[in-house]
Amino acid sequence: MDTTKVADTNGTQPAAASKPGRVGTLATWADERLGLATAMKKNLRKVFPDHWSFMLGEIALWSFVVLLLTGVFLTLWFTPSMGETTYDGTYEQLRGIQMSEAFASTLRISFDVRGGLLMRQMHHWAAMLFVASMMVHLLRVWFTGAFRKPRELNWVIGCLLLLLGTLEGFTGYSLPDDLLSGTGIRAADGFIKATPVVGTYMSFFLFGGEFPGESIIPRLYTVHVLLIPGLLLALIGAHMLLLVYHKHTQWPGPGRTEKNVVGFPMLPVYAAKAGGFFFIVFGVTALMGALLSINPVWKYGPYDPSKVTAGSQPDWYMGWPDGALRIMPGIETHIWGVTISWNVMLPILVLPMLAFTVLLLLPFIDAWVTGDKRDHHLLYRPRNAPTRTALMVALMTMYGLFWAAGGNDIIAIKLHASINQITYFMRAAVLVGPILAFVITRRWCISLQRKDNETLLHGYETGIIMRSAEGGYSERHLPLPESRAYVLTARDRDPVANGEVTPEVDANGVAAPRKGRLAGLRDRMRTVMWADNVQKPTLEELEAGHHHADHEHELQASLDGHAADGHQFDGHHLVSEEHLRDPHH
Amino acid sequence: MSDDSHELMNLPDEGVTDDLYANPGLPEHAWRPTDVDPKLEKRAERQVATLMTLSAICTILLLVSYFTVDKDATFAGLGAQNLALGLSLAGALLFIGVGVIQWARKLMADHEIVEMRHPAASSQEDREATIAALNAGLEESGIGRRPLVRNSLLGAVGLLGLPAIVMLRDLGPTPNQVADAQDYPGAGLENTVWEEGTRVVRDVVGTPIRPGDLQIGDLVNAEPETLYNGGPDGEPLEGVVLQIAKSKAAVVVVRMEPEEITPAPGRENWNVDGITSYSKICTHVGCPISLYERTTHHLLCPCHQSTFDLADAGRVVFGPAARPLPQLPLAVDSEGYLVAQGDFNEPVGPSFWERG
Question: ipTM of the predicted structure?
Answer without folding.
Answer: 0.90
